[in-house]
Amino acid sequence: MTAYQIGEMVSLIFMAIALGMDAFSVSLGLGMREIRLKRIAVIGIVIGLFHIIMPFIGILLGQVISQQIGQYAVLAGGLLLVGIGAQTVFSAFNHETRRFVQPVGAGLFIFAVSVSLDSFSVGLSLGMSQVKAVIALLLFGAASMILTWTGLILGRKVHGLLGVYSEILGGSILCGFGLNMLF
After folding, report:
1. SS3 letters for the chain?
2. pLDDT at 157 over 70
3. Which letter, b or e, does each residue of 33-56 get, where b requires 16 or more Cβ atoms within 10 Å of its Cβ?
4. pLDDT for 87-121, tens place per residue?
């Protein structure tokens, strides 16, 4: 592996963790509902799958857009990551309480889509930057699944001490990678 490849892999790992932080913070609150361990396993797997599907769609669209706009692709991708990260940080300061749907059936689908929407946008910007899609998707899915499990289990124990701080950390990491792409 070259230094560039190692750097790209480290960036993807940190980006995967940043994307999974949203699922982690929401799972902390959801975990306070005393969800059974079997349900926790299913929720984590579904969240992980959606963190693969949503950025995959984004990457495909990003590659199409990249071929159309060429040199502006990296600029657009960087701005998109900064925007997503800033929105994540600002939403962490929104003090409205979130209403959670039941994590079964359609409620689980809604929950999975809501926490993976940001990964669609990140996938769009990654598609513009010609990143290795399979590695990125697997990292996004694995990180979000593990962070969801961690959040649900910690939520049962901690009762919400880290929720806002994890969103701020995740948003800051996305902003940092966006700025890195821009400069």
Report:
1. CCHHHHHHHHHHHHHHHHHHHHHHHHHHHHHCCCCCHHHHHHHHHHHHHHHHHHHHHHHHHHHHHHHHHHHHHHHHHHHHHHHHHHHHHHHHCCCCCCCCCCCCHHHHHHHHHHHHHHHHHHHHHHHHCCCCHHHHHHHHHHHHHHHHHHHHHHHHHHCCCCHHHHHHHHHHHHHHHHHHHHC
2. yes
3. eebeeeebeebbebbbebbbbbbb
4. 767 777 775 545 445 667 877 887 788 778 778 87
CA angle 12, 67, 170 (to 5 degrees): 25
The CA distance from 54 to 44, in Å, is 15
Residues 82 and 173: beta-carbon distance below 8 Å: no
What confidence tens digit (pLDDT) does each residue in 22-48 have? 788 778 777 776 678 899 999 999 999
**pTM of the full structure:** 0.70
For residue 68 the two structure tokens come to 């159309």
Percentage of the chain beyond pLDDT 70 is 75
